Write a sequence for this structure.
């Protein structure tokens, strides 16, 4: 079969894109010819890997560096769409130009099966798709989200398609109830979720993980409030939230207001996400609505115990409460905290839920879902009297030339699949040959800084980087710290060389004191009884005081009145622990974990006093510093809210 998928955008991050790619790959493995047609091209390279067996077509190039459109196309692009439904959520992105390009493509398409992947595109597929092609309308959201006008439009349009597929059984029932004349064309086929090649999580970490768009519907505010309720009882647990979205700023403000800065990090987007899932023990989903629950299946597959709201539509279908996950009421932080507490406190329960979840996730593999779509397409073609020759399965293409990496410890890395030829580390100024061996332990020639794994032709592309071993703090100071990470798609390591480590665990600022407490490791540090704040821009200016330190702990209290008195807007201050000998000092830094670059991810609470804002932050080198800013009258009024 020739199968074409009509998509809104192939070049962004999103669940529809991921599941379409994985299902299409399974169909290609079964021997079918796959074409992906994206209305918009927003990037030169897609974020997700595209199977080289696919044909990819872009209808409208909206990249910033795209060639300028022809004058006629520019006029069409400036006029609102007439054919794409006005009540569709993406309507404002469409135009007369997209109308024209979609219709032209549909009229010229010779595919046996055309699959639309969002409501507006399905309406156009129904009206302008070739008569002899099987037309399938996929619903990746849910009918109740669309409103009455769009629902009526879809009902009229879907009388001209061969099938409508939903990703949840509940949504399929809703469609059948509200569209009775086409009830026999509606089917439920779930999203496909590829199994991770990484070993599953062990369940012994003290980390809760959440992932998804930072949008209101995901209700990460509920998760943060629930976590705040739990911290007094489970102070050793941490929370990481992965993703980008319009709610990022609001969520950061809530982290500040709840005092969660030392326990919660907003990590931004990561790909592939399974390398982050496996670091956790518990996955948290607090959404008000989930059409399917892609992250639930991903987390189950990676061996996490899932706690989710029982929101429409997906989670209650995916989770058997108490067996392979826990379900809680929507929008209830206390109830969600209670459910999290159950699995936090009971390691055996975490493990049993995680084991059952992995078994559940096995039913959503691309192979299983692809087979269901193949059966549907074959049946629809046969109903039209069209014979379908048995497809000959094809071998999957070789994996991309990427190098996977696993942290064995803070000073040992295991590389898998490095390219042939001489490997070397490159810091931009010099090259250091990579010592032979699958597990790298000799870092003698690498100085502090970022080193990129390279060959003569350029940087080595990064595959999966498994750094879960670094999420557990070491008991003794490592001789060198090596944290791998993806740097613009290439495999790199951040190297730190320290005789001693002053690792801050809490950073708090009040109107009276900037307080930093933490852990000491390494060369005996009992003589470090003082602290110094060194002004980075005015080298002759510094603040100092006495630190409360033991053999393995420290506490620093910087008087805020002194800090403000010695500061001018724009000042940057670096914090050191010091001893009687001025040459003996240790930088206060967060180094001993898996985060190679903390800046913008790990953000201590800020405080505004009058016309000055005190901003503790971590630098690009993960060192603790303090910035002093001048505020506007509006900002200064927020001092007690942040």
């Amino acid at each position: 079969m020739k199968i074409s998928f009509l998509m809104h955008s192939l070049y962004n991050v999103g669940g529809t894109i991921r599941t379409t790619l994985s299902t299409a790959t399974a169909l290609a493995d079964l021997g079918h010819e796959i074409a992906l047609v994206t209305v918009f091209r927003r990037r030169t390279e897609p974020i997700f890997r595209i199977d080289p067996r696919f044909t990819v077509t872009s209808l409208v190039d909206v990249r910033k560096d795209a060639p300028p459109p022809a004058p006629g196309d520019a006029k069409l692009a400036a006029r609102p769409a007439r054919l794409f439904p006005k009540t569709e959520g993406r309507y404002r992105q469409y135009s007369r130009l997209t109308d024209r390009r979609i219709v032209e493509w549909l009229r010229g398409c010779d595919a046996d099966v055309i699959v639309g992947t969002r409501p507006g595109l399905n309406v156009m597929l129904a009206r302008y798709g070739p008569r002899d092609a099987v037309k399938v309308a996929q619903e990746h959201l849910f009918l109740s989200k669309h409103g009455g006008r769009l629902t009526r439009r879809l009902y009229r349009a879907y009388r001209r398609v061969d099938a409508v597929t939903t990703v949840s059984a509940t949504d399929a029932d809703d469609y059948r109830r509200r569209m009775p004349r086409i009830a026999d064309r509606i089917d439920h086929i779930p999203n496909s979720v590829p199994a991770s090649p990484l070993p599953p999580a062990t369940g012994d970490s003290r980390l809760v993980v959440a992932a998804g768009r930072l949008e209101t519907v995901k209700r990460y505010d509920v998760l943060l409030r629930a976590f705040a309720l739990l911290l007094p009882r489970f102070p050793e647990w941490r929370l990481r939230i992965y993703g980008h979205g319009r709610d990022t700023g609001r969520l950061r403000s809530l982290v500040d207001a709840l005092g969660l800065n030392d326990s919660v990090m907003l990590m931004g987007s990561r790909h592939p996400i399974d390398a982050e899932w496996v670091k956790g023990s518990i996955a948290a989903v607090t959404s008000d609505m989930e059409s399917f629950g892609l992250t639930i299946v991903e987390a189950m597959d990676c061996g996490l115990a899932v706690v989710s709201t029982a929101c429409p539509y997906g989670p209650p279908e995916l989770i058997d409460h108490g067996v392979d996950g826990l379900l809680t009421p929507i929008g209830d932080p206390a109830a969600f905290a209670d459910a999290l507490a159950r699995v936090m406190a009971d390691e055996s329960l975490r493990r049993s839920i995680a084991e059952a979840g992995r078994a559940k996730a096995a039913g959503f593999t691309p192979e299983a879902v692809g087979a269901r779509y193949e059966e549907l397409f074959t049946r629809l073609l046969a109903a039209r009297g069209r014979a379908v020759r048995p497809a000959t399965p094809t071998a999957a293409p070789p994996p991309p030339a990427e190098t996977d990496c696993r942290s064995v410890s803070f000073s040992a890395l295991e590389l898998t699949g490095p390219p042939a030829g001489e490997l070397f580390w490159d810091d931009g100024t010099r090259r250091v040959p990579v010592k032979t061996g699958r597990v790298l332990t000799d870092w003698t020639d690498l100085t502090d800084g970022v080193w990129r794994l390279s060959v003569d032709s350029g940087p080595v592309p990064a595959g999966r980087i498994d750094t879960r071993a670094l999420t557990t703090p070491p008991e003794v100071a490592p001789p060198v710290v090596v944290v791998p990470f993806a740097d613009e798609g290439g495999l790199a390591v951040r190297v730190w060389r320290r005789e001693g480590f002053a690792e801050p665990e809490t950073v708090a600022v009040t109107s009276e004191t900037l307080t930093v407490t933490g852990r000491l490791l390494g060369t005996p540090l009992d003589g470090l009884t003082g602290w110094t704040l060194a002004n980075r821009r005015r080298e002759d200016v510094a603040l100092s005081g006495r630190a409360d330190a033991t053999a393995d702990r420290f506490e620093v209290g910087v008087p805020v009145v002194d800090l403000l008195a010695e500061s001018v807007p724009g000042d940057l201050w670096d914090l050191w622990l010091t001893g009687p000998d001025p040459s003996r000092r240790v930088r206060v830094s967060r180094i001993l974990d898996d985060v190679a670059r903390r800046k913008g991810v790990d953000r201590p609470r800020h405080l505004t006093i009058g016309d000055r804002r005190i901003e503790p932050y971590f630098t690009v080198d993960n060192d603790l510093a303090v910035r002093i800013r001048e505020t506007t009258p509006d900002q200064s009024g927020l001092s007690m809210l942040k």
